[in-house]
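Teaching assistant here, posting this on the class forum so everyone can see the example we discussed in section. The complex has two components, and the goal was to see what a joint structure prediction looks like when all of them are supplied at once.
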Amino acid sequence: MILPILLLTPFAAGVFSALARTRRAMEIANLAAFSLAFVLALGIAKQVLDTGSVSLWGGFLYADHLSALVCLLTASVSLVCAVYAVGYLREDERSGAFGGDDPASTSQFRKYYTLTPLFVTSMFLVALAGNLGVMWVAIEATTLASVFLVTFYGKATSLEAAWKYAMIGGVGLSMALFGTVLAYYAGHHLAGTDTIAGLNWPVLARHAAQLDPTTMRLAFIMALLGYGTKAGLAPMHTWKPDAYSEAPVPAAAILSTAMLNCALYGLIRFYILTSRSVGPEFPGRLLLIFGLLSMGISVPFVLVQKNFRRLLAYHTIDHAGIMAMALGVGGKLAALGLMLHMTYHTVAKSLLFLCAGNVYQHYKTDLFDKVKGGVIHVIPATGAVFLMATLAIVGMPPFSLFQSEFLIVRAAFGAGLYLPTALFILFGTGIFAGAVLHVGGLVLGPASPEPVTPLVPWRDFSMLGLAAVLVIVAFWLPGPLLELIRGAANVVTGG
Amino acid sequence: MDLLHNPEFGDKLVTLMAAFVLVLQIAMVGQRSLVMNIRLFAAQSFLLGAIAGSIAWYNHAPHIFIAAGMTILLKAILVPIVLERLVDRIDIHHEIAPILNTPLSIMISGGLTLVAYLVGESFYHPEAGAASLGHNTLAVAISVFLIGFFMMINRRKALTQVLALLTLENGIFLAATCLTYGMPLIVELGVFFDVLVAVLVLGILVYRIRESFESMDVSKLRRLRG
């Protein structure tokens, strides 16, 4: 019974915040709900590790290792961001970003503390839906719940970003819906032809080899375009930098990590079905192409980027590409690399967003030119962590993204994909140069006359806590978590 | 002969209505008045509901009746009302300004229909026990889908893009109904819920874009680059 409680917890917090009158009540509701959700996600992980997979209400809800991992990552990010948001939004209110008067700022708080839990609820449903159709509904719901987070500050540019996000996302997801219809068509004549169970994951997975190959090919293309849009794979990535740079930072951090994981999760489910039906060659090649394209496209944008929040967005496009490529390579090693990468990327990228948020809030700008360097002298903790997280995300050892990227490269090389591997390394070098150059310039540099600013409670403590996690996972991964990641990789390869 | 119980007549009826769905889709490409476009969309959605209803009746699949009823209620009545009220609120009754002119747009739609027939042909397997009426209706569904895409690209105004997105969804609904006699009910309900929320969300966005840009021309939304 943990599964529905996990869905209900953030949902209840969202409803409560919509009705609450004071900021304090909303903050408490959010913090409590996300803490509870984190514990529940741990509970699901434990249950899955003990019993294999959990299914509830006739397969309406279903969790295996992969769903448990995605749930756990979503729950962790949303907990950290909930703590961060308390400090971030209070700082916003203090500095007058909400327009000053009291009712206006309460309505801003209400908007954030209502929409974020609903957004997280839909992400949990993505991972826990036992039915590919319900999974689609949940992914569409993530877009709908987060559109007004993108318009949060009500600027003209926020509207533009939200419009792009909603329209590109809407068109993309309509393709994914078509893909889902086709997958249902490919299997509806065998799956015991019970119309209720026809899209249920265990049923589809069991019969995957008998699914009609021609239909599954088309279904996969549609799902790749659709969920690829949501994951921000090139060339459907154009909404991403806009949405990430307009949304309030804690929401952007959730968008760029947990929601990316959810979109990839949808893609992985379709990949599993298709590779069993038509062989791994066809979906693998397509994923390789889209993955490499995403990595390649993000390189020039990272190199010449003027805005550090957009820099992070292009970085996320690059990492979506890396994960798509890892999925495309196939095989046990690449799947393990994919799952490790998903975990590590979630930690490092959300940390980067939090750092970028601190810098943005302090300097009131997200342009490199206007900050003029020297962040580490003014807000030392943020500056140091920003640099460290940047080194981690570009894959510098000893940080753990080096391990996962190395595994992926190793697997790709082992599979004889020499050209893609070479391109992977080339693009990785480009991203490395761009990111380190820009963030290095931002963080380091001459000391300014400005005095050192003290830590902001909630906001900075959550960032430091997450930084500690990043350092710890570089050297040590808890045994059960590693087991969960292995199990998730096994789900992908069908072991 | 009892037409109400003759499945062959049912097939023909469905195919005929599907053809009208396509005709309405192409009419929307050609029609330049916004309000008329919304009404054409309502008519198309009504026909979709009728198709779902006929399939439910002739194939004795009562669960599709629910989907049929929801389609008519939601897409043929509720969504058009919401959209027309929005048109009143933001006070724009003038024309849709497509990028390509009407004759060229209709030619392209014709070409897309041809493509859809070729695609539809390639994965139609009657021997696999699929719906017997999948043949023509599937091609129509793909055409509606592709033309919806084209409409989205071809239009500049925010509200007209929303309409194009909705017709695209209609194409998928048609595919789902005639390929597999509808999706599982729970999925169907979820999709309806999403469509409703999406229309509300996009409606609010359109309204706010209109307010802060003094225009609904989304080609003016180009401050964010690089």
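For the discussion questions: Chain A has 20 helices and two strands. Chain A touches chain B through 53 residues (CB under 8 Å). Think about how each of these relates to the inputs above.
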